[in-house]
Amino acid sequence: YVKHAYLINNCYPVREGDKGPKSSELSYLTFYASSRPAKLTKVGNYLERKVTRDIWKGRKK
Question: Over 70: is that where the pLDDT of 1 sits?
């Protein structure tokens, strides 16, 4: 498992009633991506695929 995918998946809320991303996990993902410029492209690509897949499946998270 790749670290950027793990960090992105941790930002999503676990319960259906939760709104928005988890702030501490999102802060760490931001730090991770900004301190490792080579990983920024991978983070962006993975996030784009995940959001596209979630929209296509009709997920509201």
Answer: no
Decide: 11 and 29 in contact? Cβ < 8 Å.
yes
Owner of token pair 């959001």: 51
DSSP string, 8-58: HHHHS-SSTT--S--HHHHHHHHHHHHH-HHHHHHHHHHHHHHHHHHHHHT
From 15, 16, 4, select the one nearest 50 (Cα to Cα).
Answer: 4
Position 16 pLDDT exceeds 80: no
Q: To the nearest 10°, report the CA torsion of 6, 44, 36, 25.
A: -40
